[in-house]
Fold Acyltransferase.
Amino acid sequence: MQSNNTRKRPIKQHPLLPKGVEVIVPPPPFEACTQVDRLLVYATSLIIVGSPFWFYGGIIWLYRKWKQYTSLAVQCADGTCTNNVTQEDNKRCIVDAERIEQYARYKKLAKRFGAALAAIILLSILGPHRNEKLGTALGVRKWRLWDAWLNYVGFSVMRDHGKTNHEIVHPDFDMKSSPAMFAFIPHGIFPFGLAFSCLPERGYTNTWGPFRPVVATATKLFPFVRTLISWMGGVDASRNSVSRALKTHQRIGISPGGIAEMFETYPKAGYHPNDEAVLLRDRLGMFKLALQHRLPIVPVYCFGATKMFRRVQLPHFIETLSRLFKISLCLFFGKLGLPIPFRQRLLYVLGRTIFPPLADGEDVSMLENDDLNQRVREMHDAFCDEIVRIFDRNKEHYGLDHKTLKIV
């Protein structure tokens, strides 16, 4: 007689992985990254990652040209030539005629540079090209470009099913479609870990499913990055914006360490080269939102995210200004000193899902402040423990057995 009990799918186990770790997306072979892939990565890195350098440098150059030709036109504005002139004034008349011609030329050039400057600034502010529907129409998630990037970084995903002290089982939860918040650790100099998890269709199809990325307001300063984020339906990192997105879409991805986490690495004082740091100790906002909307949090550690760029340690007040204005005043470099990332394999490890510690039908709004804070702290502690667990269990496989993870 046939049994009514459905069998669970066996976990794909690799002999060199810790027990309970499932390979979801194996890394592509090293040779999968062709010379064409490298050229695409290098070109787009200079255009996208390096956009603040050439974009604002270009604006400054246009402004200086506009100011230069405007000033020259003003200097020539007093040059006149009349019909009633004496013989002695012939030379001066010729000079004045040349000035009139120069004035017209400088005025024309000033108008051209001024128009170009105004058009670029207006386009960067208004951004009609950033409509999410346009990104869908262009099929941005299926571009050949992203295959080049995923081959370059050796994109791979694993899931750690190992036991944890905070395990709560919800059999109805579906990683690819259920409402959830995905927390990607660490941020890195540039959030490649978050970007490759939601932009290329190949990245999320067989892993965690589509979601909307939560991004810092400062990303608006990156012209092309801002456009891509708009096409993905990006959500501003303010609490109100995230809360509104959770009410409607209920699937978001976030890097909780944010811009401030960029500075919590070596060569900062107090850090050793063997330290990996994540900024989580006082980051409770994500967990408050998870409780408010009764959403689970999926912890994801992205090995290699901090190694794609190197950072120059600047004076401490630069870090203070960055946190104050919520903008990354950071000096970084990649290959050949350019904004081209080093080729570093990105390994995503999904941990056990952290569910809100709430009973069925329990109303969060009815909880006392002390009780609510306790639930938030409980969820926060469970998340931190899970991040440390999946890091320690998988670091040797990645080749970082000498590294130590610090929660700061």
In short: The first strand starts at residue 21 and ends at 25. Residues 57-126 form one domain. The chain is about 40% helix and 10% strand.
